[in-house]
Amino acid sequence: MAPISYRNAYVSIEKDVYEPAEDSFLLADVAVDRISDGMNVLEMGVGSGFVSAVIAANKNVEPIGCDINPDALECAYKNGIQVFRSNLFAGLTKKGYFDIILFNPPYLPTSEDEKVEGWLNYAFDGGVEGRDTIATFFAEVSGYLKPGGSVLLFISSLTGKREVFDIIKRERFSGYVVAETRSFFEKLMVIECKHNC
Ligand SMILES: C[S@@+](CC[C@H](N)C(=O)[O-])C[C@H]1O[C@@H](n2cnc3c(N)ncnc32)[C@H](O)[C@@H]1O
């Protein structure tokens, strides 16, 4: 697969790793706008490292990338990102540490027969309604943010905007759509969320 060059970042993509797409580009653009030099940044579901590499190429920040897919971690590491392997926050000890946590999650409603082989399934499979990983992420994320820290979450209209906002509210966050674009039959958006401590 040809390497991707975007906003001064150069990223190679490997087999069984999510290939950056419109969702990755939108999240990277919002992240560069919102992140300031010196912030502590975590990218959950780092994939190839594309979003983190764009951040690192444009800000004085060294994002930490986490993923469940070992092939993704190897790829992100080769692309210059510090990585660790974890199922969401299970392996993370940095409580109250991050200014910003970003996540382009598996957000597509996925039935049994739509699953793909191997680790790559984790890139797409949001469960039957598309929100399983998002719900678990939101139940855990507040403990890892600094007071006043924020989450940048990518979703599609296919994920169910209203239902995602229900999850955000249930976990005592306030959320606002901070970027939105249309792509064929879906709307793509990034939601910024702050915890109501
Ligand atoms: C849609 S891809 C996004 C990849 C990359 N951030 C990007 O925007 O190009 C979702 C990523 O989340 C990872 N992921 C899914 N479930 C996860 C979990 N429970 N814990 C950690 N990572 C997970 C997948 O392996 C995949 O790399």
What features would you describe in this structure?
Residues 37-109 form the Methyltransferase small domain. Keywords: Methyltransferase, S-adenosyl-L-methionine, Transferase. InterPro entries: DNA_methylase_N6_adenine_CS, Euk-Arch_PrmC-MTase, PrmC-related, SAM-dependent_MTases_sf, Small_mtfrase_dom. This is Modification methylase HemK. By secondary structure, the protein is α/β, with parallel strands linked by helices. It has a single domain (4-195), classed as 3-Layer(aba) Sandwich (Rossmann fold), CATH 3.40.50. Helix content is 27%, strand content 29%. A seven-stranded mixed sheet has the order 5-4-3-6-7-9-8, sandwiched between helices. It has a two-stranded antiparallel sheet with strand order 1-2. Strand 1 and strand 2 (9-11) form a beta hairpin. The protein is globular and about 40 Å long. It starts with a strand and ends with a strand.
Overall pLDDT confidence: 97
Strand content: 25-35%
Described by the principal axes of the CA atoms, the overall outline is globular
Largest sheet: 7 strands, mixed
Which series of helices and strands comes N to C? EEHEHEHEEHHEHEE
Query: What structural class do helix, strand and pairing data support?
Result: alpha/beta
Q: Span from first to last CA?
A: 44 Å
Query: Using only CA atoms, what is the Rg?
Result: 15 Å
